[in-house]
Specification:
The protein is α/β, with parallel strands linked by helices. The protein is built from four helices and eleven strands; from the N terminus they run H-H-H-E-E-E-E-E-E-E-E-H-E-E-E. The protein has a single domain, classed as Rossmann fold (3-Layer(aba) Sandwich). Strands 3-2-1-6-9-10-11 form a seven-stranded mixed β-sheet. Strands 4-5 form a two-stranded antiparallel sheet. A hairpin with a 5-residue loop joins strand 2 and strand 3. The longest helix is centred in the first third of the chain and has 15 residues. The radius of gyration is 17 Å and the shape is globular. It starts with 14 loop residues before the first helix and ends in an 8-residue tail after the last strand.
């Protein structure tokens, strides 16, 4: 049973919170190295259970049978959220990586073993079968996208793993709410940004939820 006792809408801009989660980096490569170390340390603490509770609470409020575009977490490196999804009345889709750094989303069949319906894809990542139903576009505001994210800056600009798959798919993700789930310590980093970097609408951490304005800031 997932506990739903969480604190929402934490003010991350107080001086105390800014001191604990703001980090400055000269380039994205340096930032990614830092974030990967922080993620691995975070996953060894009790804090992920609180983060899972926050995520479950948010998803349980989404419209029944709406579509959830999720990613398959890399075991030991990302939050293991798949088991909490089985009780949610949502339609799940997960990415398949294609040639030329493109991707598509196909239906993800939830079962007792969250990895049972998956197969190995490029880079050894778990992925839905190519025979699973393809996601029908366009998406709308009732849909939700859980975006893989190493970290965010204070404006909600996402730091990914560097492959550019989600940035290239961004046009199809304009209407849905884009959600990042990550440690609080990685939610307000300072790093170089580019025009194609994706902006997240909602950041869920173990300390609560932070909303970001829809308009993407100038870079």
């Amino acid at each position: 049973m997932v506990s739903l006792q969480i604190e929402l809408d934490v003010d991350m801009n107080t001086p105390e919170n800014l001191r604990t989660c703001t980090q400055d980096f000269s380039n994205k490569q340096e930032t990614r190295i830092y974030c990967r170390k922080q993620w691995k340390s975070f996953l060894k603490t009790p804090s992920p259970s609180r983060l899972l509770s926050s995520l479950y609470f948010y998803l349980s409020k989404r419209r029944t049978n709406s579509r959830l575009l999720l990613f398959i977490p890399i075991q030991g490196e990302e939050l293991p959220f798949l088991p909490i999804l089985k009780d949610l009345n949502l339609k799940f889709y997960a990415p398949r990586l294609l040639a030329k750094h493109q991707m598509e989303f196909r239906h993800y069949e939830m079962s007792k073993d969250p990895y049972a319906s998956l197969e190995k894809g490029p880079y050894g990542l778990d992925t839905p079968s190519q025979h699973s139903p393809l996601l029908e576009l366009p998406l709308d505001t009732e849909d939700t996208v859980l975006v893989p994210c190493l970290g965010l800056n204070s404006e909600g600009i996402r730091l990914g793993r560097g492959g550019g798959y989600y940035d290239r798919f961004a046009k199809s993700l304009e209407k849905p709410e884009k959600v990042a789930v990550l440690p609080y310590s990685l939610s307000m980093l300072s790093f170089e940004t580019q025009a194609h970097d994706m902006k997240i609408n909602l950041c869920i951490t173990e300390k609560g939820v932070q909303k970001h304005p829809q308009t993407k800031p100038q870079v």
